[in-house]
């Protein structure tokens, strides 16, 4: 459910010509302190959003065969 929520936020941001990314690796204690969270709340992910420095063009996507290896 968290990923769906963050994806919706990112899609909405992109519709407003903003950019963002899902972040799941950070110091939880420091984040909780900065966000002034109570002890029963735990940050598990963040979505920083802002104006991109430059517009993104179309991205190249590799084929599934190029990015996977089957080990038998």
TrEMBL record:
GO molecular function, one term: oxidoreductase activity
InterPro entries, per database record: Nitroreductase (IPR029479), Nitroreductase-like (IPR000415)
Signal sequence, renumbered to the chain: none
Transmembrane domains' residue ranges: none
UniProt xrefs under Pfam families: Nitroreductase (PF00881)
Keywords linked to the UniProt accession: Flavoprotein, FMN, Oxidoreductase
Database matches in Gene3D superfamilies: NADH Oxidase
Domain Nitroreductase: 8-51
Cofactor: FMN
PANTHER family named among the record's database cross-references: NAD(P)H NITROREDUCTASE YDGI-RELATED, NITROREDUCTASE
Protein family according to the UniProt entry: Belongs to the nitroreductase family.
Protein name: Nitroreductase domain-containing protein
């Amino acid at each position: 459910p968290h990923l769906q929520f963050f994806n919706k936020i990112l899609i909405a941001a992109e519709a407003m010509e903003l950019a963002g990314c899902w972040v799941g690796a950070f110091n939880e204690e420091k984040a909780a302190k900065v966000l002034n969270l109570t002890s029963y709340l735990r940050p598990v992910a963040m979505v920083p959003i802002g104006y991109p420095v430059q517009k993104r063009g179309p991205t190249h996507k590799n084929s599934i065969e190029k990015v996977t290896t089957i080990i038998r």
